[in-house]
Specification:
The protein has 190 residues and is an alpha+beta fold. The protein has helices spanning 13-18, 25-39, 77-87, 107-122, 130-144, 157-189; strands at residues 8-10, 44-47, 50-55, 58-64, 71-74, 96-98. A six-stranded antiparallel sheet has the order 1-2-3-4-5-6. The longest helix is centred in the last third of the chain and has 33 residues, at 157-189. The protein is globular.
Length: 190
């Protein structure tokens, strides 16, 4: 589904790096430099505390600092096509590249690969889920005929609590009924 604009904030390298654990900061710094070199600071945003490039609702590139190792996102079909053979041994998902030396590949070689992948990705589109594609097409159609497009709103805390309460209430009630029914059967059997 379309990522709510509320989940995005402006990118500022210094502010972002201040949120990264000190032991990971040097690697995060290098990844920021690679992302900025390929896309430019104006294209980068922070999505839920990690730098990404999203254009026209298409996820193109970014990275996230994870406990095991940093994960680099390269969501460009063109980059995956051109560099897939080199990337495949390091991939941990459809477009996720694990940033750690292994299988005879050094960290420097991986940084070089990431730089090339980001450069290719910057010249092409990214990936978009089917729901987002449909939303984008609907918004484009509305814009073509001059209809004002509503801005998606985040769910309020009250609405979220009500939904959670409803979702958890029924299973709890069913369990309570099942337990009391079993107790009645036990008592009548004695």
């Amino acid at each position: 589904m379309m990522k709510l604009q509320a989940n995005f904030s402006p990118y500022n390298r210094k502010q972002y790096l201040a949120t990264v654990a000190e032991k990971d900061r040097a690697i995060a710094q290098r990844l920021c430099v690679l992302l900025e070199a390929a896309f430019g600071v104006e294209d980068i945003q922070i999505y839920r505390n990690f730098p990404v490039v999203v254009r026209d609702m298409e996820w193109i590139a970014g990275f996230a600092m994870r406990v095991k190792s940093p994960i680099v996102y390269c969501c460009s079909a063109e980059a995956l096509k051109e560099l897939g053979a080199e990337m495949r041994p390091l991939m941990s998902g459809k477009s996720c590249l694990e940033l750690r030396a292994r299988g005879g590949v050094t960290l420097e070689e991986i940084f070089d690969l990431v730089a090339r992948a980001y450069k290719i990705a910057s010249m092409h589109g990214g990936m978009i889920c089917e729901a987002d594609r449909k939303t984008r097409e609907k918004l484009r159609a509305q814009a073509a005929v001059g209809v004002a497009t509503p801005t998606p709103k985040a769910a309020s805390k009250k609405t979220t609590k009500q939904t959670t309460k409803k979702a958890t209430k029924k299973p709890v009630q069913k369990l309570a009924r099942a337990n009391s029914s079993a107790l009645r059967k036990k008592a009548s059997a004695k």
